[in-house]
Amino acid sequence: MRRLILLCTALLVLAGTPWTARAQTLLFDYVGFDYEDPNPNAGTFGEPGSGYFGLGFVPGLFAPLAADTTTNQYTYVMSGMTPVGSQSFPPYLLINYSAGQLSIYEDSKTTGTDADYGANPPNASAPVDFVDGTLFLQGTLTGFQFILNTSNGTGSFEAVFNATGGSQLTNFGGQTSGWTFAGSSGNALNIPPGYAHQIDGQTFLSKPTVSRHVTWGALKSIYR
Q1: Half-sphere exposure (CA, 13 Å, Cβ side) for 64?
Q2: C-beta separation of 178 from 205 below 8 A
Q3: How many domains, the chain?
Q4: pTM for this predicted structure
Q5: For residue 65, which of 208, 206, 204 has the smallest C-alpha distance?
């Protein structure tokens, strides 16, 4: 029952319900693609022995971060996560990952390198082009869970982000830990070859909200 409750909660939170607008302090949002390396079984996602990576762009950065999106391009890379277990609730698969790292880089739009996904990562441009410039913010991702709808390839994920480094670390004061890193994944038409999903999400600090009741049938209909 506890596993079912966790799955229900994750589906509700990560499906784009009103929490995104009313109950958080937003730190940054991001959009990109994910892939596995190593990838022992190309036909399976989250299989034992695989490694999870994500990379892309950070279009919005908010206080306490001091960013200049007019002059600079901001990119991110997720790395270091491997599956440590999974649970199946057909058609949903919940994959638990080991701790990993998230890094955001700041690079000049005029003198820096344009980030390019390329194909079949890792390749000559990815993740190399996404980690050049100045380390803007870095932190750990713990408790990373990925919920995948195996019938259509969509999904969602969530982890705890704790800031540990980068040029912006001193701006946090005492609030470096406890940020929620969450997002959704899908099968977009523009996914470059070799990438698994398009991913889109936010990192935020939750505030207390009033709970609301929802049926299991309503939760399942989110991904239908």
Answers
A1: 14
A2: yes
A3: 1
A4: 0.84
A5: 204
Q: Which residue has the tokens 């820096």?
A: 112
The range of the structural domain enclosing residue 135 comes to 2-221
Helices (H) and strands (E) in the chain, counts: 3, 10
Q: Token pair of 205, please?
A: 């600090």
d(CA 221, CA 45): 23
pLDDT in tens, 104-155: 999 999 999 999 999 999 999 999 999 999 999 999 999 999 999 999 989 9
pLDDT at 224: 52
Q: Which of 184, 136, 156 is nearest to 31 (CA)?
A: 184
Signed CA dihedral, 164, 176, 74, 20: sign only: positive
> 136, 106 in Cβ contact below 8 A?
yes
pLDDT for position 219: 44
